[in-house]
Structures are given as structure tokens and as C-alpha cells.
TrEMBL record, chains A, B, C, D:
Residues 61-177 form the HD domain. This is Hypothetical conserved protein. InterPro entries: dGTPase-like (IPR050135), HD/PDEase_dom (IPR003607), HD_assoc_2 (IPR045509), HD_domain (IPR006674). PANTHER family: DEOXYNUCLEOSIDE TRIPHOSPHATE TRIPHOSPHOHYDROLASE (PTHR11373), DEOXYNUCLEOSIDE TRIPHOSPHATE TRIPHOSPHOHYDROLASE SAMHD1 (PTHR11373:SF4). GO terms for biological process: dGTP catabolic process. It holds the Pfam family HD. It comes from Oceanobacillus iheyensis (strain DSM 14371 / CIP 107618 / JCM 11309 / KCTC 3954 / HTE831). GO terms for molecular function: dGTPase activity. PROSITE patterns: HD (PS51831). It comes from the Bacteria. CDD domains: HDc. SUPFAM superfamilies: HD-domain/PDEase-like.
Length: 431, 431, 431, 431
């Protein structure tokens, strides 16, 4: 029997707290899960530094990837009488779901920003270059790896397939909202996925929702909104992210400074510092490795690097105040100067962080992140864009909400000896 | 106000998936949680290698320690009208609960076995020697650190206090059963803790249970039984543990072998290899560090060490068969020889692992792990040992169940070229 | 000891699926629960005919009343350090919570509409006239019954007390949303009540919410919105309500028609038909009694009454179409005539039902149901009305949504023999 | 298309709190659910008087019947590749599951005992005699109704079909344990049904369980054990049952007493009193009707009937003490006499109630309730009886536990004026 049609002699299951069980029948899927590049996702947390705010949030991207696979598997079962897909099409959806986050590095957000990387490019490379994952996909059919990569890159011609894992109501989002809610323990993030799966209908180039299921979708949109502001953009988590970014930035700076010598050569980071990251370097770095360096760097001679690492490891985070960039720009400039005067390097210790989310959007071609809007399938067979039918969604549709905060080490300010300087800083911050 | 009586201006809460919220009012507790030695528990998983079997089980000992604290806090609230404890007594219970696992190292079980360490001794040392935790406890009262250490060591004179965190139905067990069930996602591990807390009554030297709550306790005992055999002793988890032990054993062996030079000097491990572990060495090692070395050791020259590390990192675990030591001893000896013949070092690749659990025990003085039995408080005011009143508990009481398995790399056996040898091995293993 | 200060020797608990346990310590509360007028609430369903749509929704008003009591009890525990209430004040809140729904009759909505009754008036009467409940309240203090009645009637001077059980975020709503979600099994209706209770703060004349808890309140408002449209206004439930009203209306009509004689004299209904309901009549009727009559009336000589009762008992409900009163008024008038022509009495078999809900409202004095808006307590100590701070709430605030449906027996239409007439009716209905 | 093969144009679902959704595709099932005899089950509580102990337990047999149907539906989906059943076989299983409790009358237990009825006989009659249900089943095939009746009566030749709804681990038990736990709110009753369904395997004449699923089955057996003693045999529930039986007994006695005339003729009960119950009489009585009579009978002239009814309606139940029939027989006889002396009719006011449960049984042919034991399917393909493989099950296997309690109205005893008599009674009861 061809590799792509091989079934396990007995269905395998993974016990999963969110979906109860994750079911695997296809040998291809089983082999992909066992591949080292996929196992590596166990060492990358789904929510980066969120566990410093919500101590339950230790779950890995391995978790989430299995979850997205399982949701797509269930959608496909519901679709089987409604679409004309052969076994390779089916596998394509499942593999794309399973592998969509394969290129995530440690603490993706900060890591990518400082080193100017893009995890989506690495997902492509892991799928297409010389890896165990690529070997497995090649055994399915000659251009199968490319197809999987195209689906993940959203360039695959069949947009229905693409929409399963990237639209405004895709398997990716449905998994992470529920999973992140479960592990953090918050009461948001719950919606009736079983109902949504039942009302999903495949159309030419997208998945649409039967209008009878609109309220479950409203609930999903609201869950997403709440999770963004309550969990993902939690100010304490962002404080840890700020420190993380500053550690990477400082380490890179020191590496580029010929006069500085690391006590321990930062072998794993060198290609990231110098900009020539090859795939093997990338696959070798994970959050365990990063933590190792941070622990060692606590003892580096550079005070800033050592201090930031010690803060991150021991969770001595920055405090924050609300910050409104426009009116407060002068205050910001003065603070920068005052920090300098106080000997607290403002490039590392005075940081504005902005978060913004667009909870749901109707279609505006040409804009960044132009995800298709959600369409309802009306009883008369027509389609209607969600926000035109739902008051709640209409009310938050297209409205980008942005939040700015100014982060700084309050302890350092309290230690300033010049009382006038100290008081002036405090007045600006808490005025 | 004295340090021990200081309250936070506003109660702080941690969102916890198991207990919903963990409440902190005392400054002492708040400071202890922020101490580096306590934060370190974030980098030690509660269940070691179990996440390789149950992918949700990524939760840390930090999680669990907060949970035990919270349960004791709730018990104390229920007890406040029934015991005559002053504020220091109350803090003593809370601190002992919070800190009881402070000395756990990475992958405790295997780590301690190979390096002949005892995490309980390190818990004592962290509390009593020069640490941030010790500084905080000293501020409560001069001998407070010693008291906390004594409660955890079970040598504290007030046995009622001791029994809160170590008896057959203590806060420690109640937390981990529920927490491990939650994160693994298994359906065992649930029992009505709220009811148990309501029927707990403080007696002279122990906590007893009002007999009306007996069924909730039965449920707890059964949960424990199921969790042991379904989760804690899961054969796949034990396979990972076996490999872990063998990695530590091999690394130590190579370190002691003067002819071998590590590519990377195993700095963090040296004191463990040589046996002179001081507290600072111990506090520096955590699971992040261990993973870092395992990843590097995949590229060591020693084939055994490199292979075992690669297996652990990529989850290419050993397979197993049931093994009954007594009748099968000869088969075992023959296998050992056959593995040698096949060039598969049996000291590392043929491992018997035994697990055993005593689900509940009545009191047998002088025996190992002599925990007090659970006593029911009868309507007439008398006490009755649980197994005398409950059929179910009686049926499993004092019965130690042991399970032996033989672990080996099936892939290596399949690669043996000498067909006769290979067949003989397979016959013995699966015959 | 005075009656009002008497505590039960041992706290009593009721196992409750929503709040886990309901705790009773006060003798007054224990006695009120045992009173026949309170036990009667076991025979009145919380959601009337909703169980014909959601089969789990069989829960009684007894359930809900205990739940509201429990929530108020927990709020009071949180408030105890923040308000200066004596024991009688505390009991006043608990009693008002427990008894607030005491006057509900069977299938309140339809029953009250047809017979022009007001359950709130009966709540007052049960508390103030000669009942066991009144006897108990009188033992607390001479004017205690009146105080309880005033709190429920919202005329009590201390508005803080009133707001606990009737505001836009009161114990009543918090209980029924969660309880109705639990018993119907829908996934809406969940919000983090524990968090809301923690951020409630007593102010002079209302309970306000610390602004840090705003998102939990948003979730609550959304839950309410979803429960209204998904559960409370479910079109199938409303179909059963329509039939119910028509049964009451027809029975009253027949009673007033001297030429008609009931096979069984409708003893329990006579005072309702004739308008002179005294308290004893009212207390004797419950849903068991109503069902008894409906079953008997299936065999009445009057075809309409018998048919409507048979439909209700056997759940052969009316079908419905959307109906927009303004543009469709002519269609409505024609339908009325056509039904008459077809021999289907439109007064009973062609019914417009309208539902409308105002999910949240800022304060507009003088309007019906003028509940206080929800106020947030800002970090600076000021108050801010919720919809000014929350985008989501702002978006649905003050917007009344109304839904009109036209109900009719589809089976009867299908049986019309005159094909032209039948087709014309179908065209108008489904056009 | 033949009736039996007709599918609904769109799958219908019922929202169910326990199984989330109940799915219906077959027209036959849809029609059966709409039949008046099935709708009648809405008016019979699943747990009789248990709601007087656990106020959430208001759920109906309609609920449970849908649940059993849903479980069998899921089992059949898992079995479809493993058994050779045609569509009629499939429908047979589903119909038998749905209808298995069709003959339950109001408060079955007491009702049947007093009137010497057997609900199983009425289930047979409703299926086989002139009813809507029978009409529907006849349309499937000529002998289909008989087949359904045979499956429910356990006389159907294919024992595999029978075992789905009556064995020691059948759909009936799996539904009621979970459902009763859900509605009472107790923490027992939970087990991993999804896992059990996955490890069920059809064999020649029974469903067996793959041995890898043994622990889930242990959990199920323990849940059953706990539910029996914590919920089903709760002494307060039994107190209500005792009163219920005595009401029926007294009413029958009065009916047979020619000198007594009921104020209201007990029309619905007459055939039950006189022993000639026909099917139409039986179908007309439900718990609503019974409650109607109890409320009226509170005003009967017979003091015993009026008192017992008032107690039941207002939940003024009997108290109880433990009672051991053998040693206490003399005490019992003395009490009987003393009650007589005190003017408290012991035939109605002094009642021994015994409950006993056999949590699991291996096979003992010829004994009452001889349900097949549970067999495990071992890895070698052999079968092994559960209790031989599971320590826990072995420990409770075949052990019948019986509990006797003596019920009486404590209030009446306290009102006895003869102090010596009163004290003697109290001494015997509480001595």
C-alpha cells in the first residue's frame, strides 16, 4: 500500500485536556509527530513569558499543534459528504494544521523582533529543506511538501483549504483560545466549538457559518477579545517581554562591541547576532538553551546584561504606568534625560510598549493581515458578512484598540540618592 | 508593626486553574514567593518526564507549592474557631506548606538516585542556610526558620501541624492529585476536596475526618490509586526515566574515566559527579540547564551518551515487556549475555524498572514511610481507623502492588545482523 | 438568646450544582426554608415552558432562591469589614434574597398576563399576611417582615441593601444566568462570578465594581445578552408560552360563558377567572395543579380548549415565521380573515408574540424598569458609568432589540381542503 | 423510500447537559420522541423523591431516555466496522435504548410496591398494544415492535444487542450515573465514558472491554458504588419514599373501607386500588396527577392520610435511627406497642426501610438479577472476568451491603404527654 494510504493497525490517541483525545490513524501524521523538528516544539512555550503572570501557562507549542490538527480532523469528518477531496487532499489539510507553527523559535515575539527573523519563513524552510519532516512529506508525493508549505503560506490555490487554518475563525484560533484559557485558568476563552464545527459549511473558497450558529460565533469573537486584553496583553507579561527584548538587544550590542569579551562564548547565539542564521542553527535553539544563557549571563561583567538576566530569571520585573505617546512626548524626553542623569541607562530601563488588537475585521483589501471576514450562510442560500448581522460584532468591528505603557525598574528609582532628581522622576511617572 | 503581622494593603491573588484563586494577605508569604529560591521552582516540572506521555503535564513545582499553601490556608480558616493558634503558628503552617518542596532538583527521582542525593535535605538547607528564604524567615522570629524546617522534617513537636502537610490525607497529596489530573487531562484524580475540608477536625496530634465525610475520603483514596497506576507509573514515562538515569550514570562514568574528555566541560555537573555538592551548586541546576547539556551531549564522542541524549531529546524511547524477576532471572541473565554478544551494552540498554505503591496503610510502627492512618471521628466522639469502617479502603489497605518491566531499544534489536542471535533475543522478550 | 441571633448547632449545607454548597447557619434562614410557602417554590419551574425546548431545564424556583441567598451570603462576607451592619441588617439582606421570588405562580409570565396578576404583589402579601413565613419574620423583630418586603419592593431607604438583589448586576441575575445555563446545558451564561464578588465594593447607596474587574463584568453583560436570545426568547419556548396563554384565555372565556359547563369544575381556577384571588387560593395553585387540569381538559367538550391542552401536554407546538408588524399589518389582517374562512379560530391559532430585551442601560429616570447603571470605582476613587469605559458595553447600551414572530398550527393549515385558500395562506406565511 | 430508511433532511439535535448534544437522523426516532407516550416521560422524575434531598435532581425520565439512546448511537458508530448489522438491526438497538423506560409510572419504586405493578410489563404493553409508539414501530416492519419488546425484556436471541442496554456496564447505567451526578451536583458519578466507549468490543453474545481500558471500568464501578450509597440510598430520600408508600397504602385502605368517603373521588387511582389497571389508566397517571391528589388529600377527613400528605408536600419528613433487625427485633416489637399506646399508628408511623446493593457481581446462574459479569479482552485474545484482574473490583465483588433504618415522626414523639411513655420511646430509639 502506498505510504500516504497507510493506516496504523490501531488508532493512537493522545490524552488532551482541551479536546479530551487527539486521534491519529494515518501513518504520515504519526511519523511527523515523531520527527525531531516537531518534538522540538515541546521546548517552546505556547505563550512565551505569560507563565510569569499566569503560573499555569506552561504549555508548549507541541500541545497547540496537536490541537489544531485535531480540530481540522473533526472539521474534515463533518465535511466528508460535502467536499470532493481525495486522500491526499485530506492529508494536506491535516499536515498543514499539524505543522503550521513548526518554525516558531524561543519566545518568538521578542526574539524575532530583535534578530529580525520571521518564524513563518522558518516554517517554510523546515518543511522544504533537508529535515526529517521533509523526508516524510516527500514520501507522500513528489510535490506534497511544497503544497503543505503553500497552504501554510496562504498561497495555495484552493482557498477553502487555506481558510481551515488561517481565517478569522480557523482551527488555529479556536485551539489557542480554548487551550490558553484552560492552562491559565481564566474564565474567558470558552465558546461552543462543537456547535461551530456543526454549522461550518464548505463553500467554493472559504468556510462559511450557517446563520443559525451566529451566536456561537459571537461568543467566539468575544472570547478572543477578552483573551487579548486579559491574557495576551497583560501588562505583567509585557513587562517580562520588555526585559527579554532588552536582554537580546544588550547581548547583541556586547557581541558587536570588540572591547567586550563574554565569560562564556554565546555559541548558540552567534549566527543570530551576526545575521547569518542557517536552518541547523535555528533548530538548535529553544527556550531551554535561552534560559541556560540567561542564567550564566547573570554573572557576566556587563552590569546591564547581568541585571536584566537576573530580573528575568528571578521575576523581578519592571513596573509600568499608562503612557499616551502624543501628549506625553515631552514628558518622555525629559524622563529619558533624567534617567541618564540618575545613571539608569534609559535605552534599557525606560521602555514604551504598545499592544493593539483588531478583534474582528470586515474585508479591506490591501491592508496588513487582510484575513477574510466571516460569512454567514443565510436560510435563503445567500451569504452575509457577520458584522452586518450581529450587533455585537458590528460594534467592535474594524475598531483597533491600542494600549501604550511605559516600563521601568521602580526599585532603581527608589535607590536614587539625589532626592530632587528622584522626586522629579516620580512626579512625571505618577504625577 | 512587626514583620510577621504585616498584611498587604490589598490582598493579592494568583489565578490558578485548580483552586481558581490563590489568596495572599501576609507580607511574609508574598516575600517568600518572590525569593529566587522559590522562583527557581518554576524551572522544575512537577512530574518530571510525564509530559512525554501526557503532553499537558508541563506544570512546575512552583504551581504545586502555591496550591499546597492555598489548601492549608483554607484548612486554617476552617480551624480558626477550633484551635488556639497565634499568628506565628498560623504563619508556620503556611510557610511549611509553601516551602515543603523547595529542595527538589531537576527530574528529582532519577537525579537523586544516580547522585545519591535527598531533596528533603536540600529543602532543610535552603531554609536554614544563607538564602533569601532564610533571611525572610529570620525576620519573623529568631527560631522561625528552624521551626519551618522541623515541620517539613516531621520532627516538630506539634504533630497536628505536621499532619497538615504530611499524613495520608494532607494538603500536599490533595493538591497534586487534582493538579496532575488537571494538567494531564485524565478523568481520575477528582474528589470532593471542598467536602473533605469541611469535615476535617483538629485533634490533639492529628487531623481527623468526621465520619459523615467518609465517602469523600474513599473517593480520594481511589483517586490516588488510579493516579498512581494510570499516570505516575505509566510505562512510557518510566521508559523516559530509565533513559534519564542512564544518561546521568553514563556522564558520571565518563567523567570518572580519565581517558575521556568532554567536548564541553560539564561545569554544572562536576560537583554532582564528584560528590561534593554545595548549596550554591545545587541551586544553580534546574531542568533548563539539564536540557542544555543533553542537547550538547548529543554530539559527544561517546556513542552511548550521545545516543541516550538523542533518544531523550527526540523522545525515541525504549520499549518494554512485562518482567517477573523471580522466575525470569535466568532469562534475564541470558538476555544480558545476548545483548553483549550483539554489541548493545546491557548496562545501559537492558533495564529492569520496578514501581510499587501502597494505596493506603494502617499504622505499622517501624516500617518505612510510616504515615499515620486516617481516623474517622464517629458520632459518639470516638475515633475509628478508616479501613475498619470502609469496605473499599479495607480491600486495598496494606496491599503493596509492584510492577516490573524490562526496558530496551527495540530499534537496535531489529538492526542486529546475526539472524539467530536476533531471533533468540526476540523469543525471550516476546516469547 | 434572641431568635435572630440563634445559630444552628452545626452549619447545614445544601448540595448545589451551581455554587457547590449552600451554607446555612442562621436559625431564621433554616426555618424560612422549611416554611410551606417556600417549599411551594419546588413546584414552580424556574423557566416555565423552557424545558420543552431544553429538556434539562426542569429546575425549580426553590433552586434559584437558595442560589440568590448564597450569593448574597458570600457578598456579605466580603463586605463585613467595609460596612457597619448589625446582625439584623445582615439577616435582612439574606431574607430578602431568599424570599424575593416567593410570590411566583405557575408559569408566571402567561399566567399573570391573562389573569392580570402581579407576582411581586403576592410576594409582598406572603411576607406580610398570615403565613408561616410571616410568623418567622415577626419573631426577628416587630417590623422586620415589613423591612424585608420593602427591600424586595425597592422602597427600603438603604439603597445599598436594595441593590444587592435588584440592580443591573445583582445576586438575582448572577444566579439565574449561571443556573439556567447549567440546567439547559448551553455554553453561554458563564462568567467569573468569584472575581465579580471580589471586586464589588459597597458605597453609600449602591454596590460598585472596582475598575480592575471590568472585563468580568463585560463577560457577565454578554452572558446575559446571549442567554436572552438563545434561551429565554427561544422561539420554541415562546410557542409553548403562546399556547399556554391561549389555554388560560379560553378556559376563562368558557367559564364566563354561561352556556358552557366544564366536565370537571375548575375549582382551583375559579377565583382567577372571576378576579377575586385571595392569598390562600393563590398559594394552592402550582404547576402540578395546572398540569392536572390541562390533562383533564384534553377531554373537554370545547374543541379549542381540548386541542390546545392536548398540544401543550404532548408538545405539538405551533410553528412560526418572522413577522414585522408595521409593513406586514395588511398581511396580518388578511391572514386573520383567511384563518376564519378556513375554520381555524384566529383568536387562538394566529398569534403574534414579541420579545424585547435591553441588555444594559445607563440611567434614564422616569422610564420603565429604571435600574441603576453599573458604576466602576476608578483607581483615583471616582466613579464612572460602565458604558463610558467599556467599548463592548457601550455598543449594546440602551439599545432595545425586539423580535416579532407569528405563531400558528402548521398541521391545521396543511389539512385545509380548499386548495386555493390553503395556498393563499401558505403564500402569505412563507411567501 | 421505506419508512425505516428515511432520514431527516437535516440532522436534529437536542442540547443535553451531560452528552452536550443528542443527535437524531432517523425519522423513526424523531417520530418516537414526539409520541405522547414518550412525551409523558417528561412528567415522571428520573429520581422520584431525591429532589427533596438534592434540590437539583428535578430531571425527568425523558432526559435519561434520550441519553441512553445517544450512548447506544455512539457505541453503534464505533461498532459499525466490527459487526454485520443491517439498518433494521441498527434501528432495533436505538429504539430499544430510547424506549427501555417507557413503562415507568410516577415515583416508580413506591408506586409499584404498593399496587403490585411492574413497570417492565407496562413498557412491553405500551410497545405492543394500541399506542402511537406501536403504530410507529409497526411501520418499520411487521414484527419490529415485538423485537424491540424482546430486547428490552432480554429475551431477544442476539444477546449482543441485549447487552447494550442491560448488562453490568450498559448504556442505561452509564447514562444515569453521569446524569444523576450532574443534576444532584455531587462529585461522584464521573468516569471516562469516552474511553470506555473506545475500548468496547462486540463479541458473539456480549460487549467486552479491551483490558487496556480496565481502569476506566474500575472507575465506573466505583462511581456506581458511591452513587448508590451517597445518592440513591440517601436516608432523607428514603424517608420521603417511606411517607409516599404509606400515603398510597392509606389511600387504598380508605378506598377499601366502605365506611369512608373521599371528599374528592380519586378517579385516577381507582383502577390501581382495585387491581384492574388497563393501559389507558396507566398512561393517564403521572407525577403531576399524583401531586394534585396529595395536595387535595391534605384536606381529607382521615387524619393519617391528611397528615402524611401534608408532610410530603411540605417536606416535613420522618427522622431515622439505625436499625439492626436481628438483635433489635424485641425492641422493635416493644416500640410498636408503645407507639400504639401513644396513639401514633405504628403501621404508618414506624417503618423499617432496608436498602441493599450489589456493586458488581460475577456470574451466579439462577440468582435474581443475574446480569452477565464484565469480561476483559486480553492482549492474547482471551477473555477474563473483571474481578479476576482488578483488585478493587475483586474486593467488592459479590458483596451485598444492606442498610436498615427505622423511620418515625420525631415531632409526634416530642408531643407525647405521658412523660414515662415518651422517655421509654426515646430511650429505645436513641439509647
Amino acid at each position: 500500500m502506498e505510504y500516504k494510504d497507510q493506516q496504523l493497525t490501531e488508532e493512537k490517541v493522545f490524552k488532551d485536556p482541551v479536546h479530551r483525545y487527539i486521534h491519529v490513524r494515518d501513518r504520515v501524521i504519526w511519523d511527523l509527530i515523531a520527527a525531531p523538528e516537531f518534538q522540538r516544539l515541546r521546548r517552546v512555550k505556547q505563550l512565551g513569558t505569560t507563565n510569569l503572570t499566569f503560573h499555569g501557562a506552561e504549555h508548549s507549542r507541541f500541545n497547540h499543534s496537536l490541537g489544531v490538527y485535531e480540530i481540522v480532523r473533526r472539521i474534515m469528518m463533518n465535511f466528508q459528504d460535502r467536499v470532493n477531496w481525495d486522500n491526499e487532499d485530506r492529508l494536506l489539510c491535516l499536515c498543514a494544521a499539524l505543522l503550521h507553527d513548526l518554525g516558531h523559535g524561543p519566545f518568538s515575539h521578542s526574539f524575532e523582533k530583535v534578530f529580525k527573523l520571521d518564524h513563518e519563513k522558518f516554517t517554510q524552510r523546515i518543511i522544504l529543506e533537508e529535515t526529517t519532516v521533509n523526508d516524510i512529506l516527500n514520501k507522500v508525493s513528489p510535490n506534497f511538501a511544497q503544497k503543505v508549505a503553500d497552504v501554510i503560506a496562504k498561497t495555495y490555490p484552493d482557498k477553502l483549504v487555506v481558510s481551515l487554518i488561517s481565517s478569522q475563525i480557523d482551527a488555529d484560533r479556536m485551539d489557542y483560545l480554548q487551550r490558553d484559557a484552560y492552562f491559565t485558568g481564566v474564565s474567558y476563552g470558552h465558546f461552543d466549538m462543537e456547535r461551530i464545527l456543526r454549522v461550518m459549511r464548505p463553500m467554493d473558497d472559504q468556510v462559511v457559518i450557517k446563520s443559525t450558529g451566529m451566536h456561537a460565533v459571537e461568543d467566539y469573537i468575544m472570547s478572543r477579545y477578552q483573551m487579548y486584553w486579559q491574557v495576551y496583553f497583560h501588562p505583567v507579561t509585557r513587562s517580562a517581554e520588555v526585559i527579554l527584548s532588552k536582554i537580546f538587544q544588550r547581548a547583541k550590542y556586547l557581541y558587536e562591541d570588540d572591547s567586550y569579551t563574554f565569560k562564556l562564548k554565546p555559541t548558540h547565539f552567534i549566527s543570530f547576532f551576526s545575521g547569518g542564521v542557517d536552518l541547523q542553527d535555528y533548530l538548535k535553539i529553544d527556550e531551554m538553551i535561552v534560559y541556560y544563557y540567561f542564567q550564566l549571563w547573570q554573572e557576566e561583567n556587563d552590569e546591564i546584561l547581568a541585571d536584566l538576566c537576573e530580573r528575568f530569571i528571578n521575576r523581578r520585573l519592571f513596573k509600568y504606568v499608562e503612557y499616551n505617546p502624543d501628549p506625553q512626548i515631552n514628558a518622555g524626553m525629559e524622563l529619558y534625560q533624567l534617567f541618564n542623569d540618575a545613571g539608569i541607562n534609559p535605552d534599557y530601563y525606560l521602555v514604551v510598549d504598545s499592544s493593539s488588537d483588531l478583534p474582528y475585521d470586515f474585508y479591506r483589501p490591501g491592508e496588513e493581515e487582510e484575513r477574510l471576514p466571516i460569512h454567514l450562510l443565510m436560510p435563503d442560500g445567500g451569504l452575509k458578512e457577520l458584522s452586518r448581522h450581529s450587533d455585537i460584532v458590528e460594534s467592535i468591528s474594524g475598531k483597533k484598540r491600542t494600549d501604550h505603557k511605559l516600563y521601568f525598574p521602580k526599585d532603581r528609582i527608589q535607590e536614587i540618592e539625589d532626592e530632587t532628581l528622584k522626586q522629579r522622576i516620580i512626579d512625571i511617572l505618577y504625577g
